[in-house]
Structure formats: C-alpha cells, structure tokens
Amino acid sequence: MLTLEKIQAAKNKLAPYIHETPVVRLYGLDDILGCNVYIKAENMQKTNSFKVRGALNKMLSMPIEQLQKGVVASSSGNHGKGVAYAAKLLNIQATIVLPDTAPIIKVEGIRALGANVVQCKFADRQAETDRLSLAHNYAIIHPYDDYHIMAGQGTVGLEILEQLPHVDTIVVPIGGGGLISGVATAIKTLAPHVKVIGVEPAVISRYAKSLKAGERLLLEEQKSLADALLPLQPGKLNFPIVQKLVDNVVSVDEDSLHSGMKTLLLDGKQLAEPSSSIVIGAALQGILPIAKNDNVCFLISGSNVGLNQLQTFL
Amino acid sequence: MLTLEKIQAAKNKLAPYIHETPVVRLYGLDDILGCNVYIKAENMQKTNSFKVRGALNKMLSMPIEQLQKGVVASSSGNHGKGVAYAAKLLNIQATIVLPDTAPIIKVEGIRALGANVVQCKFADRQAETDRLSLAHNYAIIHPYDDYHIMAGQGTVGLEILEQLPHVDTIVVPIGGGGLISGVATAIKTLAPHVKVIGVEPAVISRYAKSLKAGERLLLEEQKSLADALLPLQPGKLNFPIVQKLVDNVVSVDEDSLHSGMKTLLLDGKQLAEPSSSIVIGAALQGILPIAKNDNVCFLISGSNVGLNQLQTFL
To answer: What is the CATH number assigned to the segment(s) A52-140?
Structure first.
C-alpha cells in the first residue's frame, strides 16, 4: 500500500541526491491561462525530470546483492535516465530498453550516464525487458507500477505543499500513473481540499476511458507529441489510487499540446518537453476546472527536449 | 544625485504596477558555470524586461500637464516597450524611435501597447528623437542618462538583496549604464561586500575602454547579437557611478554570447534575449572573478526574443 509515511521516508532518503526544485510564479501566464499560475519546476531536476525520484527511491530500497547483478528498465527515456543516474550513484550496471522512436536527447542522456541502451519496437519493450532480466538475472525497475517508485514521485507533492501552502489545484501529466499516484496520496492525506487533476493526450486517454469504464482498458498504440505519455494501460497498482484520489482526468488534443509548449516557452520563458507542457495545453484548451483567482500549480515534469525537436516545434 | 532613498521611494511607487520577479536557483548550471547559480528573472517582468521599472518611475515623477503633451523615447526596443506600457497606464501618447534593425518582436510589442513607432537608421536615433520632441512638445524619456530612470532600475538590486541575502556577486549586463548604476548604488550602500560586475559585448566595450581611459569614450557603431547593448558611449550621469561603485566590467565575445543563450535555454531551461544571456556567456568565457562556492546572481534582464531569432540561434 502507498502511504504518506512511505513518501515522507522517500523524501529523507532522496534529499542528499536530488534538487528541491523551485515553485516559480509565472505572472506572465495569468491572463493567458485564467488563474494565478505557478509551476513546480521539475524541468530543472537532476536528469531533467522527476523520474529520478522514483528510480532512486526504488533502488535505494533494494538489497545490494540484488543490485550488483544489474538492473533493467523499460522506458520512453526519462525513467531510463533516472535509473541510469541511480545506477551510476550506486556503482552498478543498468540496461535501458527504449523504443526506436525515443528522442535522441534521451538516448544520449542515458548513455552519457554509463548505462547500456537497447532499442526495439515500442510494442516489444516489455518482452525485451523480461528477456534481458531472465538472461542476465537483472532486476526489473518498473517505471510506475511499484509502490517505491510511486513513493519517490510523491515527494514532488510534499514539496509543493511546503513551498506553496495556499495552492488550490495541482495539474499533473499522466502516463502510466506513477507520478499522480504519489502526488495525490501526499496531497489528499495532508490537504484533502486541494484538487488534483490529471492530464493525458487525447489520442491515448487510457485513464479517462478506464475511469469511465471502471476497469483498466488496454488501448491501441498511437503517436503523440507527448513521447513520455504513451503507456497503453493504467498501471495495476496505480489505477485504484487514481480512481480513489484524483479529482478529474482531462484529455488534451495534439494542437493544444503544441500550443502549450509554445506558450510555456515564449510567454512563460520556460523550456519543457511536450509531455510536461501538456498541462499548459490543458489550460489553453479550456478543459481545466479552474477559475480566475485560483492558485494553480502546474507540474512541469521534465525538459529532455532536443534542439532538433525544438526546431520542429517552433 | 542617485541615492538609496530614491531607489527605495521608486520601489514603493512601482509596487502596484510591476512584478516582483523571482530569484531562481538554477542547480543545473552550477557545474557548467563554476559557482552556485541564481538568476534574477527579469525575463519574467511585465513587458519582459526590467526597463519598465525606470520608464514608469520617471513618468510617475513628471507633472501631468507635461505628460499630457506626450512623450518620446529613443530605444533599441525594451526601453520603448517600458515607456509604451507606462504611457498606456497613464493614458497618454508615446512615440518610440527605434533603429531599422530592431527585432520584430520588440517593434510589435510596442505597437501592441498603443504607442507610435518611428524607425530610422541607428545613427539617426537621437536626432530624430530631438526633432519629434521639438516639433510636438513631447518630453524625452532617456533610456539611461537620468536619475529617475536609474532609481527605477535600482529596485532590481533591492529585490535581489531581499530575496537572496547571502549573495556574493551580482552580474549585470551594461549598455548605457542605467541598470548597473541603480543596482550598484543599492547594493554598495546596503551591502558593500557584495561584488557588482558589469558585462558588455567585446565588439563595443564602451565601459571597459572608458574606465581604462578615465573618460567617456565614443566608440564606432558595431553589430552584435546583443541588440539591446549597442550604445556607443557611457551615459554622462552613469559613468561616474560605474567608476566609483562597480568592481569590474568584462567584455564578452560573440561566440560566448551565442553559447550563453544556448546554455541558459538548454541547461538552465530559461528563455532570455542575447543581451541578457550575455551574463551567462561571460561565465562560460571564464572572465568572471567567481569561485566554486560563490553565490552568484546573474541578472537576466529581458526576454524579448522572437521565434525567428530563436531559429537562427538554434
């Protein structure tokens, strides 16, 4: 079970190794988005994404004998970079399984930390990860379907509450559901009046559809600008937490995703990757339940975006 | 004379109209720049530059009868946008004289605030401003050579000291010298141990050369990526203040200017214009007297940079 205590323990464990990223007030976006705009700047986190929190918390909880055999993780890139960072810190070997379509900056960022990279078709990632685990006795570090991972990601929620006690609403990108499970658990235990809203790409709205159906639906593979938000099904452990604690999950179309990134860069002056600026896209699309004087914290989850992608965007 | 009291008075006067921009800790740049990196984020200021502070402070100090005849200002763009913003607020007419080479985003930003724009050759700006002033009885709002302007810009220094009391060094872009005169006066009165370093483009190092010569030299017109730092001579009122209070002025080459912008965007995740990211370029060039554990505040003075410029840069 995921509890506040586990998230608080993760916070202490992670403190020496990660940044307490700032909450930044972006006045320049208030009129555009229709609320008092704050961001939690995980785009400035080590490895340039929040994923390092969960990966490191998970690996710090594992027995050293197991770690020394090596670890393997399937990832769209950011979780892999988090695992690679943790592996370097712990002086162990990591292998990261990425889809062929992963942005170059993510592939290179992982290699630069000393991890092996194996690339395969998106659909084959899990099978390849299982194969490597079996063949080499590598422990699998799941990107979201794991309580230690969720507890690590939940530390973002604790920090937001400390840094912005008068927050009304927190807007969080959803892929598999690791980040929002952790954040919602922290927030709803300590400050149940604060709304937690999830945001996913409309082309692959696995949470909105599953919540409606009351069960974890498996969607078909799709392309989206949000390259880190492509999981086809809510996580098994994550889904009930999201069902219970998250106020709302909204779906953002690709045009708004694109506008979200441009607005955050040109008006907010912040560089983030599309899977993070999706939260700004949701506000632009007008689908967030927010009002003019609400203090809204947009969780900017990462910024592993390359020059080549930026050029395409702009 | 410029005094701390005038800067404090400006702070109170400006408070209802501008943002207290954040000081943001950019951990991701520490290793790259070789110090503890903070930015004062005037890239997030109203009008997207600090210039609104001086323009507004000046115009709020003028008699209403004079303002109602209209104002005129020569500018590379940001001062003009500040004057246009103040004019809109005070419901008076502003005319801004810009060089033909001003970035489109600055021209459009000024027009969007309702001011008239007159464009001419860079060399003809002052004559055109004087002509308009004479012909229409417009009051001239000088971009830097004015104590009210300097007092307004100096409020940035007051805010830095409040927000980051343990700052060791503040790094400030210099054009005519309005910003650094105000900041140095505030800092050296309240915290004389804090170093204030000026940064200008090497191709037009009017301050470094004038300080060496002991008098205000008039340089020849040059091109630089730093389109807001092109004044050919230190301001008359500014020069003695810089002589007396600024610890050092360094000159940044165009390559480092370019790298500074890229580093601030891709590693710092902040969008700024070249005339602001020049302070990052100075650190990259290795010409700042800073050390590993110093708390260095880089004054990111503005972010009026268009998509077209960004594309050229990246």
So the answer is: 3.40.50.1100
